[in-house]
Amino acid sequence: MSERSETKRAEPRHDGWLASRWVRLNGPGRIAGVDLARGLAVLGMFAAHLLWISGPFDATEPDTWITVVQGRSSILFATLAGVSIGLMTGGRVPLPADRMTTARGRLAVRAGLLWVLGILLIATDVPVYVILPAYALMFLLALPLTSLPVRVLLPLAGALALVMPFVQIVLDAPLVWSTPTGYTVSAGLGWHYPFTTWIAFVVAGLGVARADVTLLRTQVWLVVAGACLAVVGYGTDAATGAGPEAETASYLGALWTARPHSTGLLEVIGSGGFALAVLGACLLLCRTVLRWVVLPLRAVGAMPLTAYTLQLVVWAAIAAATLDRVGDLAGFRALEPFWPLTIGTVVLCTAWALLVGRGPLETALDAASRFAVPGDRPPRHPAASPTR
After folding, report:
1. What is the pTM of this model?
2. What letter would DSSP give residue 94?
3. Which tens digits make up the pLDDT trace of 236-288?
4. In this structure, how many other beta carbons lie within 10 angstroms of the beta carbon of residue 127?
């Protein structure tokens, strides 16, 4: 549902606080499938952070299935950032020029605040690659593209996905990245999720929003096209992809791989397709009665910034209290924190969404962006916020 369609519908009246919270999460003004996909992306990153994951994925070996979260969860998160930006800037049809200027200004403010929050989380010394600095930079890079239609955005995403992995190898090559200064710059840029290539996922998500994610044909197209891309990327890697030694030994090896977080060509194609297919599957699932079964996951997806940040803050607090140093990854994983943190996050987000409403960090970012960039509050899709 685009913002244009929202302007044609009078807001229904809902008496009572709890009734209004329920409608906020489950009403017609929210895209449940986008929330579900975001919830899966957040919990997938929890798994990548907190679980021991070894060995390649093997569909015949259930013990390896958790490997699917490696790299793919963060790429799904980046793709959904593009969807959110697209929904905030008009959905199927871009906003008029004056409202687009306001929306871009507010997104730029959010990007700045996300970058600051990312740096603060890095300062906790929790041993993960914090995605928020890269997320913020990708927001900024996407802003000039928000007026483009779907017929331009999707081909542009495809071109970036095919070209930028060739460039990324060159950008990753300088030895400065291995120096203390290079490490600091890398952390500030979120270089583990290099915006120079990952912008392709954001542009793809923006194009999907312009295609109207509420349409059945768009949802089916996402599943089919995404699955085909995943098969091409991962299938080619299985047949001809470079092994670990070849990947480090040559330019072609570094390019021709689908290893998670390699930013190789086959990873970009395969994991990008995987993200599109997951989004489409979530949208289709939420057309059925199963949308109520996955309500707790949708609640997490309604406040992903709060959930992501809370996980790292709790991690830092527990590690500081129980370990010699916060950065002891093996020691923290040995505490088996995944299920307590995951279940606690799901329960807290569900309770907050149903009893309070919008996530606290999402509320703070929205208020700050509206204060910094005043203007009439445009009618917009409640699922649009990229930090909801």
Report:
1. 0.91
2. P
3. 999 998 888 888 889 999 999 999 999 999 999 999 999 999 999 999 999 99
4. 16
E-strand stretches of the chain: none
Under the banding of pLDDT at 50, 70 and 90, the label for residue 29 is: confident
* CA distances from residue 181 to 16, 130, 177, 202 in whole angstroms, order as listed: 55, 18, 8, 28
- Measuring CA to CA, how many Å separate 261 from each of 134, 214, 217, 328, 387? 14, 31, 31, 22, 23
Give pLDDT tens digits for 97-136.
999 999 999 999 999 999 999 999 999 999 999 999 999 9
CB 345 within 8 A of CB 44: no
Q: Which structure tokens are listed for 243?
A: 């092994």
> How is residue 342 written in tokens?
């995951």
Structure tokens at 134: 């890269």
Contact status, residue 79 vs residue 201, Cβ threshold 8 Å: yes
How confident is the model at residue 55, as a pLDDT? 67
* Dist. CA 153–CA 335, nearest whole Å: 45
Task: Output b/e per residue, 348-358; b: 16+ Cβ within 10 A.
Answer: bbbebbbeebb
Burial of residue 311 (number of CB atoms within 10 Å: 0-12, 13-18, 19+): buried
**Is 64 buried (19+), middle (13-18) or exposed (0-12) by CB count in 10 A?**
middle
How is residue 170 written in tokens? 């060159």
Distance CA 202, CA 118 (A): 18
**Are 87 and 380 a contacting pair, CB within 8 Å?**
yes
Q: What is the CA radius of gyration of the chain?
A: 20
Cβ–Cβ under 8 Å, residues 341 and 46: yes
Pull the structure tokens for residue 211: 């295609």
Which residue in the block uniquely carries the two structure tokens 């609640």? 299
What does the CA dihedral 62, 232, 196, 113 come to, rounded to 10 degrees? Answer: -40
Alpha-carbon gap, residue 101 to 89, rounded angstroms: 10
Residue pair 160/169 in contact (Cβ under 8 Å)? The answer is no
What are the C-alpha distances in Å from 201 to residues 115, 119, 229, 344? 19, 23, 13, 30
